């Protein structure tokens, strides 16, 4: 859908892309409310498989006893605990991502069929057969690498950032007060470093930085798969996820879709293909 002319907070005229609600309204007009739930089944299966995988891994490879980080730890000791726990989380996340990614690919392709009004991917089993026949085993893992990198950067970024905020910016006297976080009279009430209140804003900040990995991974999942949305003129055919990243970077679109409402057209954006 084409951008519309609007004004920013300074009163200057700028081009805005349609918002989430504009697209949602259009999808309902074309497909009805059911159109908003394209790809839901494989997405739910992907999430369920990821959860089961993580639970099974915890049983097969139980984590070593990791003590909670407290304000009594010195910087070196607390950092070791953070690195140890984050490494374990990264292992579980990477394995669960690899196993669930084929279902994510199917989900993405079911969704983008809306663009070309296609019905190539309908059920999960039939989609698995089509992908294996046309692209082989590797077809189930297109876009996996940027997703893995995004997960790794997100985990380490959130955990380390939260740790250093707690270590240098959080007043220890607050957590030592009775009834506060980390009450010494009630050790069971101590909140670990990754459960502290500072962890939430860290996830928001780091998720903004890792969004391009998610975008590139999803674009590669549908690129050149036989659907119109993954072919010119809607999208160039990318040789690799790095090629896709560079293309979006030049176009100023690495963060496209990251905002639900005010989506400005970047100055470098154009729809001409290379």
Automatic annotation (TrEMBL):
- Report the locations given in the UniProt record: Mitochondrion outer membrane
Which SUPFAM superfamilies has this protein been placed in?
Answer: Mitochondrial carrier
The record, for InterPro entries, names: MCP_dom_sf, MCP_transmembrane
Q: State which residue ranges cross the membrane.
A: none
Membrane topology per record:
Multi-pass membrane protein
Q: Can you say where the Solcar repeats lie in this chain?
A: 80-168
Tell me which domain of life the UniProt entry assigns to the organism this sequence originates from: Eukaryota
- State the UniProt keywords alphabetically: Apoptosis, Membrane, Methylation, Mitochondrion, Mitochondrion outer membrane, Repeat, Transmembrane, Transmembrane helix, Transport
Gene Ontology CC: one annotated term:
mitochondrial outer membrane
GO annotation terms (biological process): apoptotic process; positive regulation of apoptotic process
State its role. Answer: Protein insertase that mediates insertion of transmembrane proteins into the mitochondrial outer membrane. Catalyzes insertion of proteins with alpha-helical transmembrane regions, such as signal-anchored, tail-anchored and multi-pass membrane proteins. Does not mediate insertion of beta-barrel transmembrane proteins. May play a role in apoptosis.
Q: How does it assemble?
A: Interacts with PSEN1.
Family per record: Belongs to the mitochondrial carrier (TC 2.A.29) family.
Q: What name goes with this protein?
A: Mitochondrial carrier homolog 1
Its source organism is Colobus angolensis palliatus
Q: Taxonomy-wise, where does this protein's organism fall, top ranks first?
A: Eukaryota, Metazoa, Chordata, Craniata, Vertebrata
